[in-house]
Amino acid sequence: MSTSSVHIPDPAQQRRSFILVAFSTIICAAAQLLIKKGANALGQNPTIVQTALAMVLTPALFAGYSMYGVSTVLLVLALRHGQLSLLYPVFAMNYVWVTILSVLVLHESMNPYKLAGIVTIIAGIAVLGRGQAD
Questions:
Q1: How many angstroms from the chain centroid is the CA of residue 91?
Q2: What is the CA radius of gyration of the chain?
Q3: Residues near 41 by Cβ (< 8 Å), separated by ≥ 6?
Q4: Could you identify which of 9, 32, 107, 122 might form a hypothetical disulfide with 81, taking C-beta atoms 3.0 to 4.6 angstroms apart as the criterion?
């Protein structure tokens, strides 16, 4: 029976993992925005077949799903040398980026509840990050 040793990443690897996750969240948020724009182009009551075809034929949908793939690859690369319990909460920044992009690009409304949610997410990430310093 073999025992596996726990690999402790060096600070440079941890920093690189954090940067990869940060880029992953931005790309993922942009992907969600493109998917929304593509979904709006589908029209009323598309069938499953029409939606499947649109995913390939509608540039915004195709780009959005492709960016999801890139985001996932970056997350996998980040997790190779980073701690899941530290990096995955940072991935929650997707909610922040999507809300901001929705307001700026799609002209959706910002209200006190959305703002409170953004503040709560950022505070939660900060608290979890501080907990990793111990």
A1: 5
A2: 18
A3: 54, 58, 60, 61
A4: 9
pLDDT digits (tens, 9 = 90+) for 66-120: 999 999 999 999 999 888 888 888 889 999 999 999 999 999 999 999 999 999 9
The CB density around residue 73, as the number of other CB atoms within 10 Å, is: 13
Alpha-helix residue ranges (DSSP H) falling in 41-83: 48-57, 59-81
The residue ranges of every structural domain in the chain are 11-132
Count CB atoms within 10 A of the CB of residue 22. 16
- The C-alpha torsion from 118 through 124 and 129 to 131, rounded to 10°, is 170
Residue position matching structure tokens 């726990």: 6
Q: Please give the model's pTM, rounded to 2 decimal places.
A: 0.82
Token representation of residue 100: 């901001």
Give counts: helices (H), strands (E), the chain. 6, 0
